[in-house]
Specification:
Belongs to the universal stress protein A family. It is a single chain. By secondary structure, this protein is of the alpha/beta class. The protein folds into two domains: 139 residues, HUPs (Rossmann fold), CATH 3.40.50; 152 residues, Rossmann fold (3-Layer(aba) Sandwich). It is 37% helix and 22% strand. It contains nine helices and ten strands. Strands 3-2-1-4-5-10-9-6-7-8 form a ten-stranded mixed beta sheet, sandwiched between helices. Strand 6, helix 5 and strand 7 form a beta-alpha-beta unit. The longest helix is centred in the first third of the chain and has 25 residues. It is globular, with a radius of gyration of 20 Å.
């Protein structure tokens, strides 16, 4: 059973994240936890505020319960076990801690909550959860996918590494790609991240990347016929991916990270953070190891999009 945590504050973005999850096909039964973090107001304890606090908590819980009922309705008829839990304190910290405690596989959050200024800015809660969580995180931005009848458009960042190849094979075992437009894209960068100068032979880098890209695209087309391969030259990998997503009006842009604590996370994290904060679409931060791609418990949703920049 797939363990998914949907964090919601009842905002429009949070509701859109719930709707997105509800409309994605899944091969296996989902164990879905809807979490609401109640932020208690800061009150001077020298004053008698017990009644005020009780009233505040009651209103917050009432709103949270109403929000949960709306989410629950979205999953009517689906093969989903759904529960509602509360947390108190700092939203992102509680979400991250709860996900770790429950050994959650996947977290879904909206890009902005009630405190957001505008949609294109990433909220601090979403930012911190996506950056610090131990598992994969999908930060949902509305792209109109539920408003019109059209295929889902997914852009997968790909680099010819063992984790990425394992992820592609996991995707090929699913059937979700039959109705999805897949754009697999490799960013060819010839600039040293440390020296900020050209240190590689561009022709060699391009030839090797092109060969690997077309090989994986051919493999993907066996199960996802609407797969297109793209080699994009850009000095900045993250910027190249974001511009690609903008040009192709992607619904999801997938980037990967190595597990926290590994040396590679220094470089890969910079790409992920750039994409997370600048992409116009939903962003999937994929975390895990190669062995996870062979697990029978992986859901269709996770398998179909996981790719690693490592």
């Amino acid at each position: 059973m797939r363990r998914v945590l949907l964090a919601t504050d009842g905002s429009q973005c949070a509701q859109q994240a719930a709707s997105f999850l509800a409309h994605v096909p899944h091969r296996q039964k989902l164990n879905l936890t809807v979490m609401t973090v109640l932020q208690m107001p800061s009150i001077n304890r020298r004053y008698p505020v017990e009644g005020l606090m009780s009233s505040f908590v009651a209103r917050e819980r009432e709103f949270a319960d109403a929000t949960f009922e709306k989410v629950k309705e979205m999953f009517d008829g689906a093969d989903v076990d759904i529960e509602h839990v509360y947390g108190e304190g700092h939203p992102s910290q509680r979400i991250i801690e709860f996900a770790k405690e429950r050994d959650v596989d996947f977290i879904i959050v909206g890009a902005q909550g009630h405190s957001g200024i505008r949609r294109m800015l990433l909220g601090s809660t979403s930012d911190e959860v996506a950056t610090q969580a131990h598992c994969s995180v999908l930060v949902v931005r509305p792209t109109g996918i539920g408003e019109t009848v059209r295929p889902l458009r997914i852009a997968i960042g790909y680099k010819d590494t063992e984790p990425a190849r394992a992820a592609i094979e996991a995707f090929c075992e699913t059937r979700w790609g039959m109705q999805t437009d897949i754009h697999v894209v490799t960013i060819a960068s010839y600039i040293s991240a440390f020296l900020n100068e050209i240190v590689l032979d561009p022709s060699v880098v391009k030839d090797e990347a092109t060969a690997a890209l077309h090989e994986v695209a051919d493999r993907l087309r066996e199960v996802a016929p609407h797969t297109v391969a793209h080699l994009v030259e850009s000095d900045h990998i993250g910027e190249g991916l974001v511009k690609f997503a903008e040009k192709h009006t992607s619904d999801i842009l997938v980037v990967g990270e190595t597990p926290h604590g590994m040396f590679g996370n220094v470089l890969l994290g910079s790409v992920s953070r750039y994409v997370l904060r600048h992409a116009p679409c939903s962003v999937w931060i994929a975390r895990g190891n190669v062995e996870q791609s062979d697990s029978p418990e992986l859901s269709n949703f996770h398998e179909s999009t996981l790719a690693k920049w490592s």
